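Q: I have two molecules that I believe assemble together. Could you output structure tokens for the complex as a whole instead of separate predictions?
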Amino acid sequence: GAGVSQSPSNKVTEKGKDVELRCDPISGHTALYWYRQRLGQGLEFLIYFQGNSAPDKSGLPSDRFSAERTGESVSTLTIQRTQQEDSAVYLCASSLGLAGRYEQYFGPGTRLTVT
Amino acid sequence: EDKVVQSPLSLVVHEGDTVTLNCSYEVTNFRSLLWYKQEKKAPTFLFMLTSSGIEKKSGRLSSILDKKELSSILNITATQTGDSAIYLCAVNSNTGKLIFGQGTTLQVKP
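A: Yes, here they are, computed for all two components at once.
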């Protein structure tokens, strides 16, 4: 694929359910980032993966949030026991290396609505 | 705590006007500052700035970094309705993660 893809594009779930969001980065990009964007807000860093290094999880808001990445490919962000405040657009981005040295390419995002 | 602040938060102008968007930051071990344009969901990259005083230009858009003042500006000349978007500023320290500002929403009226 030419760019970063994310699925699903929209997800509506009931409070208390678990959700899994998927990100397919650009092939060859070693760095992968997850961000959250609440309505009218900037992007909030959640987690990033860089090659085989341990991920930086410092932005995850609670232990209900977790993410995995298989090698240098697909990543999944899992939110357990969803709450209404989890409603947001979740954006994934990938880059050739660490952001700030290399341009980040963003996916179209997943809009999560928790009812 | 690292932080990035953008101003104004929103701006309404008419086609042909020139606008200046501001970004100020407090970051430990600054590495670079980036500007993005966000029209629907995915932000698109505009500029990466690492050196003070060197203007980067792309068409009607330009940006410059002032490390002494810990700030950057993004200029858009001869604005068009297609420039309507949220403009995001982000700063990178040597940790690898980007700290984003809250964004400036620009509306360009015909």
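A: One point stands out. The CA atoms of residues 43 and 100 of chain B lie 12 Å apart.
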